[in-house]
Each structure stands twice: as C-alpha cells, then as structure tokens.
Amino acid sequence: AAFYMVWGTDPIVPRIGFSVIGGFTCLAIYALGRDLIGKRVGLFAAALAAGFPMLVVMSGLTITENLAVPLLTLSTLLAYRTRQSGRPIDAIIAGFCLGLTALNRSVALALIPIWSLIFVLSPHPLRHRLLLAGLLATTAATTVLPWTVRNWAEFNEPILVDDLSLTAMYLGNNPYFSASPMWALDTGQPGAMLPFEVERQLAGLSRRERQALLLSLLLDFIANHPFEAARLFLFKLWLFWAPYPHPADIASWSATAALALFGVIVTWRMRGQLLLLYATIATLTLVHAASTALPRHRIILDGLILVLAAAGLAWFIEKLGQRSSRLSRLSQRPFFDFSIFGARIAITGNPSNAGAWSPFRETTDDNRQTRKGLTPAAGSTAAGDLRPTTTTDSPNGALNTPSIRSSGNAAS
After folding, report:
1. Measured between alpha carbons, how far is 127 from 375 in angstroms, rounded to an integer?
2. What are the two backbone dihedrals, phi and then psi, of residue 240, each rounded to the nearest 5 degrees?
3. CA geometry: angle at 264 spanning 261 and 266, to 5°?
4. How far is CA 95 from CA 45, 162, 295, 346, 407, in A?
5. Which of 85, 75, 100, 77 is nearest to 132 (CA)?
6. What's the CA angle centered on 164, arms 161 and 165, to 5 degrees?
7. Across the chain, what does the average pLDDT equal?
C-alpha cells in the first residue's frame, strides 16, 4: 500500500520495490547464517536465497510473503542475538520486529509464547531471563495493539489481527475437504474458501454469529470424525512441505529440502544454539497443519530453511576440498601412477604394511601440507562459529580432520 500511495498505481512500482526488499532479504539470511553457524554458511545461504526460484518469482508478485520472509528472518536473527547477549534493548527490538511479522501474517502470534519460553531457558540469571521474556512479549503485543484497537472500533469485536483464524481452521477440518482441495485456495476457484453448503448457512449472519457457527461445525467434525481429522492433519503436514507441481519448484525445493535435512544432521551438536531456529520452523508447521496448509504458506520459513541447507552444502564442499587436497598430495609423489593404484591399495590394506606409506601421512616436516576447512575459530565471540582456519598434520603424523563442530554453550 505504501508503494501505491507514494508512486501511484502503476503495477511496475511494487515489483521494483519488492525486488529491493528481496536484496535486503538476502542480507538478513546472510546475517542469520553467519551468527548461528558461521560466515561461510551465511555466504552460502545468501547465495542460495539470491537464486532460489520461489523467492525470485515471489518478488514479482504483490503478496504478503514479500514482507513476511524478511520480517521473520530478521526477527529470528534479533531474537537469537537477544538470547546470546542478554541485553534488554535487543529483546525490545526483537519483540517489535516479531510484532510487525504478526501484523503481516497472524500465524506469527504463536511465536510470542514460544520465543518467550526459549528466553526463559537461556543461559542467564533467572530474573534476567524473565525480564527478557517479558520485554519480548510486551513489545510484540504493544506493536499489534493499535491494529487490535482499530478492529474493535471498526467491528465492535476484539479481533487481534484478522478474523480468518476460525475460517482457516474449519477450511482444513471439514467433511467437504476432499471435494474442495487445498490447491483451490491458490487458484481462486469458486468455493475454495468454504464449501457452498456452509456458505449458505452463514449467509445473513453477523460476524460474531459466523464465528460461533464455524467453531461449532469445527468441533463437531473433530469430535465425530477423529480419525478423519488425524488423516487430514497428516495430509496437510505433507502438503505444507511439498513443492508446487512445477518442474522448477520440484527440482529446486527437493534439492534444498535434502540439503536442509542434511544440515540438521551435521549441525546436531549445535542444537542448543539452533533451538530458536528449530522451534520457529516446528511451531509454524504445526499451526498450518492444524488449520490450512499450502506450499505458499511455507515460504515464510524459506530464509530459515536456506540457512540449514547452506550448512549441509558447506559440509559437502568441505569434504570435497579435503578429498581434492589429498589427491593433490598423492599426485605429487614421484611414484604416482594410476596403472598400479590397485596394487597400492593392496599394499596399504595389508596389516603388516600399515603406515609404510600413505597419502594421509607425512614423515618429514618439509612435506607437511596445510589445508583449510571449517573449524570453530579461535577467540570466536559467537558459539558454534565456523570460520576458515588452517590445520596441519599433528606431530605424530596423524591428520587433524576439520569438521563442523560447535563451541561455546552449544549442546553436545
């Protein structure tokens, strides 16, 4: 709306504005990856975000996700910094940004109690933890409050952000679900929002009466069809994480999701440090699975998912670098010859010749090689920071293998 108010109704204006916002989104994703895991992961995450098809396509559309992605990414970054620093001013800024995110997407309201609980579990004195949690929740609520007051004055009802919550809950939990698939929401098909039978019942009712009827229909369906409600929950859980049925999104999202899952594995020792990231993804996933779910709804989490994908990518590149370095060292030996490589394997595989020669050992200081990999930087200020450092062979000849490891207060 701000773009239209300032520059008129030309449709090209918001596209240019959203493209600029997309650039800031990449910066926010870089900062989040750098602070959580390390600079290299931050750079990889920003590079992935710059070319991620869904984010690129989205920047040309006038939809709320263009603001939701950078707002949630920035909010998560600020909340993480608050948890690490323990500064009250950081909690206030994080709460304000979270409030803006909730105004854009009301599902973010569920993050206020979750993040407050995580602050209570932070490594600070109890009174200070409670202060941080209180400041975050109070600031977020205060940011949303003016819009709630406006809704009350306009509709004479206490509507926090919007009144679509019960509609969304019923839309994803009703006996007509299979006849009106969730995909219809994206295509704008008639009857996509609510079945025609329900629309007829709601016709002529006041806003409060509509909400009461939807709540009654929702509870009746869950009580009378518990197994069907559970099946729908699982289906929406899958739908939330599914790609759009387009080759570009199927290819890009499948690769990103696989890297993100691997990123969770290689950073598992840092799970205490990444708790805020995991909790945010899990909370918004469950909220959508309980109400309505589409791949579009997942876009708000793309910034966080790309950070995990970058961690997996960094691990693979590190390992490829190690392998390349070892092959390079082997090829420098005067007796290197692929024609007898099989014989060399047989020789080194013999227990009696163990250590007689090996491309992974050096016997003289002159031949020692250095390599670069991802290890916790000495004197790092952020727990679990991964930065390029130089490693060498240890005095006893064994190679120190760099790996993605955590430091600081990360849970082991």
Report:
1. 35
2. -60, -35
3. 110
4. 25, 20, 27, 63, 27
5. 85
6. 85
7. 75
Q: Tokens 């679509």 identify what position?
A: 164
Instruction: Find the Cα–Cα–Cα–Cα dihedral 340, 345, 346, 347, rounded to 10°.
Output: 90
> How many Cα atoms are found within 13 Å in the side-chain-facing hemisphere of 277?
27
Predicted local distance difference test score (pLDDT) of residue 396: 37
Give the largest Cα separation in the chain, rounded.
Answer: 90
**Is the Cβ–Cβ distance between 126 and 170 less than 8 Å?**
no
Predicted TM-score (pTM) of the model is 0.72
pLDDT of residue 369: 38
HEC readout, the chain? CHHHHHHCCCCHHHHHHHHHHHHHHHHHHHHHHHHHCEHHHHHHHHHHHHHCHHHHHHCCCCCCHHHHHHHHHHHHHHHHHHHHHCCHHHHHHHHHHHHHHHHHCHHHHHHHHHHHHHHHCCCCCHHHHHHHHHHHHHHHHHHHHHHHHHHHHHHCCCCCCCCCHHHHHHHCCCCCHHHCCCHHHHHCCCCCCCCHHHHHHHCCCCHHHHHHHHHHHHHHHHHHCHHHHHHHHHHHHHHHCCCCCCHHHHHHHHHHHHHHHHHHHHCHHHCCCCHHHHHHHHHHHHHHHHCCCCHHHHHHHHHHHHHHHHHHHHHHHHHHHHHHHHHHHHHCCCCCCHHHHHHHHHHHHCHHHCCCCCCCCCCCHHHCCCEEEEEECCCCCCCCCEEEEEECECCCCCECCCCCCCCCCCCC
Residue 374 has φ and ψ, to the nearest 5°, of -95, 110
Choose the weakest-confidence range: 20-29, 187-196, 298-307: 187-196
305 beta partners: none
Give me the residues paired with residue 389 across strands: 373
- The first and second tokens of residue 125, run together, are 């004195």
Q: Which of 190, 192, 302 is nearest to 240 (CA)?
A: 302
Distance CA 373, CA 323 (A): 12
Decide: 32 and 304 in contact? Cβ < 8 Å: yes
Q: pLDDT tens digits for 285-343? A: 999 888 877 777 888 999 999 999 999 999 988 888 766 565 455 445 444 343 333 33
